[in-house]
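Comment thread on ticket #2218

A.B. wrote:
> Attaching the input chain for the structure job we discussed in standup.
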Amino acid sequence: MQRAYIKMLYQSKEARRLSWKDIANLAECSVDQARYWAKRHDICDGKHTGRPKTIDGTSKDAVKIETLQDPSMTLIELSKKVDISRESVRKIRKEQGFRWISYVSRVPLTEKHREGRCYFAQYIIDHPEIVPNIAFTDESMVALDFSKRKIWRIPGEILPNHFAEVDNYPIKRMVWAAIGRNYKSRLVLIDGTIDSRTYCKLLEDSGVIGDLQRFFGENLQFMQDNARAHTSAFSKDFFAKHKINLLEGWPAKSPDLNPIEHLWALLKVRMDLTKVTSLEELDQEMLRAWNTITIEEINNHVDSFPSRLVVCQEHNGNSLNGLWKEVHKHHHQN
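C.D. wrote:
> Ran it. Output below, let me know if you need it in another format.
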């Protein structure tokens, strides 16, 4: 009777402007008891009485199935659906290996994109002698985001050293590099945006073209994506002038096939931005982190290229995001 009265008082708590102390006094119990019974009945909609419900295998299977079908379902929604407490749902999900993490991003691909990826994959698989001569290239943007820095402070208390100056125009730098089997280019820093003329100029002024030709010789296959700066008539004339063989047929929307993408991720992980406050310091830190990447690490990613193609083809040209375990397994078995 007392519990039902507490529930009734709790449900009218907002309308009657009752505090927990008011509810406890009216129900002639302690504040802790009032809070416990009110919330317990409210969560379970008055159905929960006696000992907690035993969690059996059926309940655990239901939690797993519902979570797999709708990974965005909240604890409250799932607890109501399978008729167990939120804490039980949380515990079961943790035991089953579920974690609250971000969606896996992937590039949207049309049927034409997938066909192009499969065609390219089959061509390289049929001509494995090409792979050791490929120089994988790409640009990447590195930005200094002060808003993501964290410090230790007490919530609600803000001291002068708790502020980070955040500009509407963050400090950032575009960089370019090339990798291959036993090959690692210098990290090229790019000022501003890039078009055909700046792209060709940075390749020539940095000395990378000469380095690539000396290392790979006439068998060099220069890989680049289909950005306009790479495929324009001006750029094609530049490569023809320097007698650079371009790797033909690189499929659109296929950054996942390019091993250098994982090197960009590794570069950003190894950068220490805690003390960087200027573009000059950002450049120095990028160069320092790039120099820590070893040839062994580069070879490991370059050697995974054939496995990327095999898995891509096996999955009808779909994105490799979500399939990296298969790529790693194939790579280490071959």
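A.B. wrote:
> Thanks. Noting for the ticket: DSSP finds 17 helices and five strands in the chain.
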